[in-house]
């Protein structure tokens, strides 16, 4: 990644963490433009994903979906399974937010298959992919699958010492363990 594009993406992430969404959008947009002009997909993918997240933060789901779809398409060409899984998972989140549960589930299942096939997948990445599928299963009243997925996510969050994730999973599981 070129220094200028990398710096723009880092600045954009910092601006988002500081809730300066217009600044983050500006920097991701500039990184997108620089990446397109250089033809570097490796730079364009994180710029698109960052823009997608900003659009989600701003409530622009349709634009977020378009950006994530482009990032997924480019990620498929790059051949990085973990990057593709991460990007597909976020596209699934957009679909779920829009109420397109079948599309979301397809994304989550593909992301999980990719994560599970990659030996470098971190337990946290896997937990973060299992969690939204558990939410979807719960929302669609597939309680057996939801319990299995919430249990897996809880165990993964416990293994990575992510207390917030562990607590969320435990709260969901407590609905059925009374």
Tell me briefly what this model is:
The chain has 178 residues and is mainly α. It has helices at 3-17, 21-38, 41-57, 61-78, 81-97, 101-117, 123-139, 143-159, 163-174. The longest helix has 18 residues, at 21-38.
Descriptive overview:
By secondary structure, this protein is mainly alpha-helical. The chain has two domains: 1-78, Serine Threonine Protein Phosphatase 5, Tetratricopeptide repeat; 101-178. Helix content is 83%, strand content 0%. The protein contains nine helices and no strands. The protein has helices spanning 3-17, 21-38, 41-57, 61-78, 81-97, 101-117, 123-139, 143-159, 163-174. The longest helix is centred in the first third of the chain and has 18 residues, at 21-38. The radius of gyration is 17 Å and the shape is globular.
List the helices and strands and how they pair.
Elements: H1 3-17, H2 21-38, H3 41-57, H4 61-78, H5 81-97, H6 101-117, H7 123-139, H8 143-159, H9 163-174
Sheet bearing the most strands, described? Answer: none
CATH structural class of the largest domain: Mainly Alpha
Uncertain stretches: none
**Total helical segments:** 9
Share of helix, binned: over 70%
């Amino acid at each position: 990644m070129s220094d200028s594009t990398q710096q723009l993406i880092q600045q954009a992430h910092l601006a988002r963490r500081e809730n300066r969404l217009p600044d983050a959008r500006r920097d991701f947009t500039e990184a997108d433009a620089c990446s397109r002009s250089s033809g570097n997909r490796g730079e364009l993918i994180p710029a698109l994903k960052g823009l997608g997240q900003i659009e989600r933060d701003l409530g622009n789901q349709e634009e977020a979906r378009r950006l994530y779809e482009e990032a997924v398409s480019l990620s498929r060409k790059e051949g990085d399974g973990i990057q593709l899984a991460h990007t597909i998972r976020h596209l699934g989140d957009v679909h779920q937010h829009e109420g397109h549960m079948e599309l979301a589930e397809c994304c989550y299942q593909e992301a999980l298959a990719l994560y599970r096939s990659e030996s470098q997948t971190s337990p946290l990445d896997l937990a973060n992919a299992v969690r939204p599928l558990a939410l979807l299963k719960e929302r669609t009243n597939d309680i057996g699958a939801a319990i299995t997925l919430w249990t897996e996510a809880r165990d993964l969050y416990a293994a990575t010492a992510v207390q917030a994730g562990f607590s969320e999973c435990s709260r969901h599981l407590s609905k059925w363990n009374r």
